[in-house]
Every structure is written in structure tokens, then in C-alpha cells.
Amino acid sequence: MLILAFDTSALAGSVALSDGPRLLAERQLDPARRSAQTLAPAIAEMLAAAGVQPKQIGLVATTTGPGSFTGLRVGVTTAKTWAYATGAAVLGLSTLETIAQQTPHSMRSPTAEIQAVLDAQRKELFLGRFHADDCQRLAPDTIVAADSWLAQLAAGTIVTGSGLSKIVDRLPATVSLVPQPHWEPQAATIGQLAWQEHQRGREGDLWKLAPVYLRPSYAEEKKSGA
Question: What is the pTM of this model?
């Protein structure tokens, strides 16, 4: 099965093409430009280079959040449109789970926990918690105050994600820090996870696929407070 996967949850996105578990191609989006401008051309160029027609894609997968409000809308809308136009299956995946899955196996321990974080602004973090050995979820994705999260980190916790960028110098010496190249979700990982989920029988719903923001947009908050 040919799988088209992409991530637009942050400024630096990516697209990938896989044949089942085998990665065929991957491209990084230009972080200096909006994903609304770069995603479609990157997909078209990648498929053309691989000699693949859109209708040959059997599964399209994207991250659904948390992340950038605009970026998530671009990714989810593109996935839904693609699936509707070509008849491909569609799957949405957690941004934080994708990042956790990128933790090197050499760092994982059966008793450890992976905590993946993204910057939620306002001195807050989007947080996902997972078992280190199999990346099974320990709790739903949530929002936490950065100071509170730092204070509760237990020794041996594996931490990862671009949310560390502003606070990495405040991390306790007792935690295990995943190398920075693994902090951003990669389309190749999304393709791998989508293939695994498809093999387990998971089916996405084109009509119900939606971004997972975890908080209202600024405009919605302003309206509700008016």
C-alpha cells in the first residue's frame, strides 16, 4: 500500500511517501514560507519524482494536533480533500505521539516514561505521556504550566519535543534528554505509524477528521469573553 504522510503542525513541516513500512521519499517544507503555500507543491513534486499518480495512494495520514492552529487546519483539510478526491483511506495521528515514537530505542527502558512537549505559548506546554518501551499512551494530551511541569519531572524521565527549546537549560540533571534532531514530528514517522495502525485494523473517518487544538483560538476566547 502506498502511503502519503505529512506534518504541518509547526513552521518546519515535511512530506513522505511510503510503500507499506518502506520509506520511498521524504521532503522537508521550507520553514520560511507558510505550509498553505508549500505543502501541495511539495507533494506534487515528490510524487512526480517517484512516478506515482494520486489515485495510486491507498492511505493518506497527517498529524491532527496539538500544534499551530493554521498549520493543523492546512494539514487536515489537505488530507480530507485528498481522501475525498481519490478514495484513499485517511488517518489522523497525535503530534505528541509522533514525536515520542522518534525517541531512539537505545534510550528506552521498560520502566521509563517518555514525556513529549510542544510550546503552547503563555508559559504553558502541550504535554503527552507515554510508556518508553512501546509508546503506549499513559494519559490524554493536555496543557500544563511550564514551571509546574519542570518541578514534577521524576528522575529517569525521557523528555523530548520542540517545547524544550526555551527551557532546556532548566531541565533537571536527572532526566534523559532526547537529541534535538528528534524533537520535530517527521512525515516518515507518520507514515510508519499510519501503516501500523492500518495493519491493526484502525479506520479513519473522512467526515469526522478534525484538528485537536486542546484550547480555543484567541479569536474564540476573545468572543467568549466579550
Answer: 0.94
